[in-house]
Write a structure and sequence with these properties.
single chain, about 180 residues, mainly alpha, two-stranded antiparallel ribbon, 6 helices, about 10% strand
Length: about 180
Amino acid sequence: MSIDFANTIHDRFAADVEDYIATPERYVEWARRSGAIATDEMIDMSRLEGEGERLMADVRSLRDATYLLLSACIDGVALPQGPLLVENHWLLRAWQSQSLSENGLLTLRADPEDLRIPLKRIALDVVDTLVDARAGKFKLKRCANQSSCGWIFADTSKNGRRRWCAMQTCGTASKTATRRNRG
């Protein structure tokens, strides 16, 4: 979920980028599709009045922090302080919204008035993603299409040699460009 969230900017390094979650409605739609909002949960969008800009500022802030934290992991460097502060802020908010369930698991209490529940889930998932990557469950990588894409992916391939976010898009474009350059 956190990788998908970081990748909600299309062609991050291109001159003209597209933000897949540029509006509160698109953010909620993406959150539902990604599982950041459970199928049985409702988000009360009527509470959005006057809150939309602040919500979207929070979305952009956590998305940028998530991208930078995952990138630092890819690069094998210390996690940067600014993004860590943002992530820790959201972790604190997420932990404050958790409770112990009857089955002995911590669960996030879903409040229909909480427009930021997806951000809390994403913050928790960032931790899991970093822990799993460092434990060797997968290798975090950047798409080899550095001219425009910039997406991050979890390489779970057997030999660990995956290069593109998706073969159908960036892989094909790269191979086509290579053929053109040879000709």
